[in-house]
Amino acid sequence: MAGFDLARRLKAGETVYAAWCFMGAPVVAEAIARDGISAAVLDMQHGLWDTASVIAGIGAVVHAGGAPVVRVPLDDFGFVSRALDFGAAAVIAPMINSAADARKFAAVAKFPPLGERSWGPQRAMTLQGRTGTVEYLREANDGTLTMAMIETPMALSQVDSIAETPGIDALFIGPYDLSTSLSAGKAQDVAAPEVERAIDQIGAAASKAGKIAGIYCSDPARARAMVKRGFRFVTVGGDVGYLRDGLAAQLKALKG
Asked: Per CATH, the architecture of 5-255 is what?
């Protein structure tokens, strides 16, 4: 993708599939992007990415023709602007539970007058092919995406106000945390009736606010089903699963 293409495609109503990258290995994220997945999510919340590897991973994904997306650590709004300065096309922030959380997220991700992001995107400008500071400044608020994760009953109760927050571009569902919280820690059934209702509620809130709806899916069948329900930024498994599945297929073939 060229600079800011992820935002343009999603805002135009296209579906973009992504891979969830846990391993903290830039070369793996690069291979995924090079072999046909449009976007790679570098997970700093639960994955093995640190600052150095995420810088390398963003560059590797861009050079492979993909869009790098960073999920920042919990409550680390300071890293949001850093990820964007490193060249992330989008940032996913976990556990956005209120409109106040959403405003804090947007404030560090968007330049004035929409937010309070400070200036320093030298690496981002290089990766996104922008040589003039004013050119980048003019395009960045629309060209980089904020994705607020909806994962709790509290977030569900405020999902409309979160979606309507200026500077929030997308709602992103973490179905495993959502199912855990909705079941009070008793289950992780992402297809449970209460989870399915919550997914529809979140999708409807995004649609009503004119925002993008995104969701994590562990397999292609679930991903296709979510696309039919209006979700446009959809993950399809991730690096650890790809490795396990590929290894299992090879071992099965060896055993004949």
From this structure: Alpha-Beta Barrel (3.20)
